[in-house]
Amino acid sequence: MRVLGVDPGLTRCGVGVVEGAPGRPLRMLGVGVVRTPAEDEVPRRLLAIEDGLERWLDEHRPDLVAIERVFAQHNVSTVMGTAQASAVAMLCATRRGLPVVLHTPSEVKAAVTGSGRADKAQVTTMVTRLLRLAEPPKPADAADALALAICHIWRGSADGRIAAALANRTTPTTKASKEYRP
Amino acid sequence: MRVLGVDPGLTRCGVGVVEGAPGRPLRMLGVGVVRTPAEDEVPRRLLAIEDGLERWLDEHRPDLVAIERVFAQHNVSTVMGTAQASAVAMLCATRRGLPVVLHTPSEVKAAVTGSGRADKAQVTTMVTRLLRLAEPPKPADAADALALAICHIWRGSADGRIAAALANRTTPTTKASKEYRP
After folding, report:
1. What CA–CA distance (Å, rounded) separates A144 from A86?
2. Which of B44, B50, B94 lies nearest to residue A46, judging by beta carbons?
3. Global ipTM
4. Nearest-CA distance A92 → chain B (Å)
5. CATH 3.30.420.10 is the classification of domain A2-180
6. In chain A, what residues touch B102 (CB-CB under 8 Å)?
7. Which residues in chain A are contacts of B94 at CB distance < 8 A?
8. Label partner for A138 (CA 20 to 30 A): which of A16, A29, A31, A72?
9. CATH number of the domain at B2-154, please?
10. pLDDT tens digit sequence for B81-115
11. What residue ranges do the domains of chain B occupy?
C-alpha cells in the first residue's frame, strides 16, 4: 500500500509518500513541502497548494491520502489556513477517487512513538529510524507527513487484516500484527 | 459587472448572481443553495460543493466571485466546515482566473442596510427590495449570497471609479457615487 501523507498548512504543507505492507519494512518514496508565499492572497495560495499536491499525486500515484485532522481548538491565527489547505488536499484526492483518511495528531504520535503526547523531536527521530533514513527529514512538517503515512499503513493495515480475518477465518492474524507494530 | 456571491457552508452554501453597474438598477440572475448531506464524509461534501459551484460558474460566467470572509471567532463547531467550503469556492474561482474578493459580514450588512449590525431579517428585506423581488429569497444563506454580490458591486465599483479617476483626472466621480450608494 502506497500512502501520501499530508500535514496541511498554508505556508508549509508537508507531504510524504510511504509504501508498506503487513510484516514488511516501510519504504519512503518521497518527502517534501509545498510552500506558498505569505504575501500572496489566500485564493492564490490555495491554487498553488492544489498545483503542488496534484504534482505529488501524479508522480507517486498513491492508493490513499492520509491527512492530519484539524481541530478548531488549535492556534486561532493559523487554524483557518490549515483548515483551508486540508480542504484542498481532500478535494485533490477525492476528485481522483482516492480514499481520504484523517488521523489526529495524537493518533499519529502514538503510532510512531508509542505515546500520543510525544514531542516533535521524538516523532522526527522515530520517522528517521522507521524509514531507515540517513538524515532526519526537515522541516518538521515533512516529518509529520511521513508519520501520517506510516500511521495509516499500520492502522489501516490492521483494520484491513481484521476485515480479511472476518471474511476468511483461517487467516493467521496475530503473528503478523506483532511483526510490524512499532 | 456580474458577481457571484457565495455564503460558504458545508451543509448549505448560499449562491447568488447579481448584475449591476454604477447608476443602474441591480438585477438578480440567479439564487440558490448548494446543499450537502450531513451524513456524508467531509471530503465527499467538499467535492459536491465544488461540483455545485462549477455548475453555477458555467451557467452564469461571472466577472468576479465575492465570498464571505470567515473568522475563527465564529461558532467553533461550524467554523472548520465554513473555512473548508470557502477554500473550495476560492479555488473554483481562481482556477478560472476570476478575481476573488472577501467581504466581512459587517461590510455586507452595512452595504445593504446602512448598519454593520443589522440582523438577518433586515438583510433579507433590503435584498428583496434592492433586487425588486416578488418574494424574499430563502433560506437566509441564499439572501446573504445576494447581499455579498450587491456589496461588491457597490464597493468594487466605487474602488474602480477611484482608480479610473486617478488614471484620468477629468472623469466626474462625485455625482455618480451619489446615484447608486444605498
Report:
1. 14
2. B94
3. 0.76
4. 9
5. yes
6. 42
7. 43-44, 46-47
8. A72
9. 3.30.420.10
10. 999 999 999 999 999 999 999 999 999 999 999 99
11. 2-154
